[in-house]
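FAQ: What does the model actually see?

It sees only this:
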Amino acid sequence: MSGDPARGLGGRATVEEVLAHAEEFDVRNHGPALSRKPVLLVGGWRDRTASLEAFVLPMARAIEAVDGALLTPVVLDDGHEFRAARGELHAAVRRWLREECLPVLGSHPASSGDAATYRKNVLDITP
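And it is asked to produce this:
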């Protein structure tokens, strides 16, 4: 992929990139790999870009099909950009980081310092 990673390819080039790598980019094909990591899957009831039926539910099913999946699904009453539910989205992400990611990070053998930094800088909480 070329172009500025922060801005993406833009317009036609993005569509061509996605179509050329559709199978590779299809998250439903990566259920087993994703099931070994905490995954926060957020969807919007009014999302017309990535609808629950076409995108969110198939992804959730692919991840949950694997034993030991660490999936946290969240559906907000909003569209694709979550403009109306921004506070709810932030709260869901912070809760997921605190409840799902921190325990995984804290169980890593080399993460004692990392977990403390994570609590302080990302979650803004102290043990």
